[in-house]
Design a protein that fits this description.
mainly alpha
Length: about 250
Amino acid sequence: MEFTSKSELDERYYQTLVQMMQSQAYRELAAAQMFGFGLQYVPELRWLKFMSWHIREEMEHYEDVVKMYAEVTGESVEPAVHERLLKRPIEFATSWYELAMAQFLYDRGGFWQLKEYEECSFLPYRKTIEKIIKEEKGHQALGERIVVELTATGAFEDGKQAVFEKWLRQGLLSFGRPSSDGAQYAIGVGLRKRDPGPVMQDFCDDIKPAVKACGLEFPPMARIGIDEPAGGLNLSLDGVDVRRAEGYAG
């Protein structure tokens, strides 16, 4: 069943939708703030242009969600977003290498999370998400390429694993807790496609070539504060083809 307006929704569906929109608005604004702060570390004009464009895109996506929220609820989402940012401020990068890692993993996590809503049963939300996904596809590979190329220089060996774990956690947090009651409800009413567990696995599989190319290792999920799905995640790099990593030069 598909819906187009608030009047068609029961209370639990509506409150779940409100939570989804607030979370999406938070992620978009948090990303813009994080990349904006990181501009001070960008070393070259070509990357300054890319990061500046990326910040503008995140702000446009934030605006898309703000408009949708107002149309659905008749209220502004901004107070809820700012309250959440005060309680859970986004991590900031402190170097160009870390900013590239954030662009790779936080952005990639957000992309996989969004894809779970591309068949959303609330059509205005689906339309907004489809627009964001289409625009996000244009730069999915670039953060990975920068990380792989920078790591290949050998200049970041001492800190690369810690930086990877910090932003891997942020990427995985995008999906929520596996097998939660809320996730199962959202699947049942068509708000999302799958439980967070399989999405986490797809995300990890997607980044494995770059992880292996950079000489990194997946940490135990408990160490970075991530709840694994029942049965755990397959984090093995055996058989992974590093040639699939963006920026890998051999």
